[in-house]
Amino acid sequence: MKKNIFSLFAASILFLSLSLVSCKKQSLNTSDDVTSTETVTDNAAYKMDQSTNSGKFGCFDIVYPVSIALPDDDAVVTVNSRDELVTAIKDWAKSKFGGDGSQHGRGKHYGQGAHPTFVLPITVMSETGETITVNTEEDLKALRASCNKGYFDHRNVKDHAEKGKPCMTLNFPVTVQFPDGTTKEAKERSELQAIAKMWHQDNPSTSGHPQLVFPIKVTQKDGTEATANSREELQALRASCN
To answer: Whose CA is closest to 34, among 111, 90, 93?
Structure first.
């Protein structure tokens, strides 16, 4: 009698253990297969910042407007700011994952694989105020290699769409000085971009880049205005808000 009770008890324990393992496995599989719109957006924003070594944790800032290509849609969207860039990524993610923001199976692919990319050429501004136009993938590779702070080596993806946002913006108008000593004023971002692109187009073999003339003013994340009187001060301002 005792033997039968023991056998029944052991069987019950085994069944319960198998059930718990099965439920846990099912829970893990469900979690792995569902990718939220926010996760996809964070991944895509991270990869785009990584590709250009830009944003709060990179060495460069994108000079807007820029165009981005959306995977699978054969669509190109022009954005005028970091906020518009993130919104465009999020809208693309929602279109892929449905109104509830998630989808089984394909989540991994879009979260970690295909993502929006910048359409070249693009213009970036360095930490010291140089405006650099990137025309080719080779130029982009060289840009990434020119400065490495190590942030993108650790894949800190969570909440990157917000965390990676530059913490200051350039105030206009600004004056740009070319390597030959001549200058030109840019009244807005698009004009700065056009000036940089035109100079690089007309001077493909000239070393150096157009450089902002100091002092310049920037608006910080908290809304306050700050003045940088030199390359070193601009670099220090950018570093201090990281």
So the answer is: 111
User: Does a structural domain hold residue 74?
Assistant: yes
Domain for residue 31, yes or no?
no
In a domain, 206, yes or no: yes
Q: Which domain holds residue 178?
A: 37-240
Total domains in the chain come to: 1
Q: Is residue 19 part of a domain?
A: no
Q: Please give the Cα distance from 94 to 92 (Å, whole number).
A: 5
pTM summary value: 0.79
Q: Which residues contact 232 (CB under 8 A, 6 or more apart)?
A: 128
The tens-digit pLDDT sequence of the chain (242 residues) is 544 544 444 444 444 444 444 443 333 233 333 468 899 999 999 999 999 999 999 999 999 999 999 987 779 999 999 999 999 999 999 887 654 444 443 444 444 458 899 999 999 999 999 999 999 999 999 999 999 888 898 888 999 999 999 989 999 999 999 999 999 999 999 999 999 999 999 998 888 899 999 999 999 988 999 999 999 999 999 988 86
